[in-house]
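Annotated sample (chain length 484).
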Amino acid sequence: MWSGKITRSREKAFGLPFVIIAIMLLSGVGVGALIPSLMLRLSSAAGTIEGSIVVFGTAFWGLVIGTLIIAVLIIFRQDEVAANAVIAASIVLDWYLHIGFVALLIALVLLLVFFLGRSSRYPWVQPRALWLWFLFLVLFIFAAIRGSLSTYETLYYYNYISFGAFIMFWLGTVIARNVTSARRFFKVLAGFGTLIAIHAIIQAITGIFLFWSPLNNNYYASLSNFILIPGLDTQRIGSFLLNPDWAGPFFAFVLFIALGLFVESKTLPEKFLYLFEVFLMVVALLFTYTYGAIIGAGIGVIFLIALIGRMSYRILLSVTLSLFAVAVVVFFSYQLYLLQLRPEDSLIRFGAWQTALRIIGTFPLTGIGLGLNNYLVRADPYRVPAQYIPLGHPLNSYLELAANGGLPLLLVFIALLMLAMWLTLRNWKRADIQTRALLAGCIAAVISLSIDSLTSNIWTNPPLATLGWLVLGVTSSPLLLRRE
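Output written by the structure step:
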């Protein structure tokens, strides 16, 4: 299957057996490294039969099955599905089940396989401005080491937010071989987001969290189970992202991906499918009761309409969004009423920002070091009265990077973000009208994520950072507009 899809020269140079051996070795190393974590965190995954034979439990076999699925996707060159598996692993395994670094391992394996199997049909490409990425990683290393109070915290920030961002961006750059590949990737992403939205809606309507893990009991209890208003049973929904302040940006992000697919699709069944996905995403976003995500989505709509590419598309999109607004007002009036009654948290947010600004003023070049526990301890002397409780971050991704790593780190991060957006806009300018609609949805999604990062730790949240950088890699790829 593999040799039929690469050139003879590449087949002679690398060969099918070597690729399979590389996959098996890396997967085996990953499984071996993750088994202890699974044993300790999920359940007692091993038992003995007659005192001699070890039988592994569901956690181990789940990981084995997942590894085999990824291997099958790689062998059959379902690259876009495999890339979405990275996003799913980041949310469900790394974040919700706290296994750690599964998504990064999968992404590294995929990049290695794509490098070994490169050909004229499956080209290999490097991200632009590698020197800027190198500078970002170096600055991050020193900030992570300086602020680390534990090995986990060092790995948390470096593997997820910096090195992980670089790997995800590179993976997106490679899989976007042409517009067809990008479209397939976004279709699978919209489908996965729809499943998460359905899970959130079920949780909101029934109060039942499907596939609940007791690992998160303490986290939910520490935040009063995200009860919207004391005295009411209404709960803010976080689904597998746990916190509604993180689930809201996720639904807003995927909402724009589905809107882009809706506008650029040609057949009526496809339009109805994407319209249904958009509706579910809007409902799930409403159930998070997250102001920042709703504001980010509103600003994203403005950019989407401006970049959609054709007046007929603007009219179609405006009519569709107006109908959605009417449906939300009619059928979800109670939720809108509760959203207005939600207690204001602007005071503590302004206080958190003021605290971060005081830290930046004191340590403008180096910050106090990256680390959640580190910030809790070292930011306390600079805490203003408006921040009436200690926080692990300043509720703003940009201030978090500046306060923890210094202004140079923040400037390099913004430069990388702006570079990726500029490359995306350049692809948008060169694309045809239909592809412009799809890219406009992606640009609006990234903008909504960036706007919400002003109100919470979004770009510094591992699953959301994985999602954002992977999509930016796809949309900014120099391969995107190659001939089919």
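Annotation: Residues 6-55 have pLDDT under 50 and may be disordered.
Annotation: The radius of gyration is 23 Å.
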